[in-house]
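This section describes the prediction task in plain terms. A model, or a person checking by hand, is given the sequence of a single protein chain and must write out its three-dimensional structure as a string of tokens. No templates, partner chains or ligands are provided. The sample shown here is typical of the held-out split.
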Amino acid sequence: MKILVLNGPNLNMLGIREPEIYGKTTYNDLVDLIKDYCSKKNIEVECKQSNSEGTLVDYIQQAYFDKVDGIIINPGAYTHTSVALLDALKAVQIKTVEVHISKVDEREAFRQISYVSYFASERIIGKGLNGYLEAIDYLEAKV
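The expected answer:
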């Protein structure tokens, strides 16, 4: 099994940005957590982060050609604004799980809109970094 984990804008600032919401664990710690978990399950995983919407679209499209079995995406702020990410996911038709570290549905009203949710087969919200591990388990069971 091959999984692509995508993180959008500002997720590279984990541990620095609003630690009261996102915690003190760094982005590199998150990547290590995901890779260690996948290694134990014999799952091939690649983790990528970008602050650029176009780059994230490119990563999603490339996943099709790389024959990725599942995508885990935390689109960050693009969750609430990006039809381009939605369209890219719809184009490649790869099973996708949307993950959010915080409880976005309980925050500002604008954060309660998710374009990615129109395609994602599962949403995992407010479970911290463990939400990524739950997403891996979901894809492992469903793909």
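For orientation: The chain has a mean pLDDT of 95.
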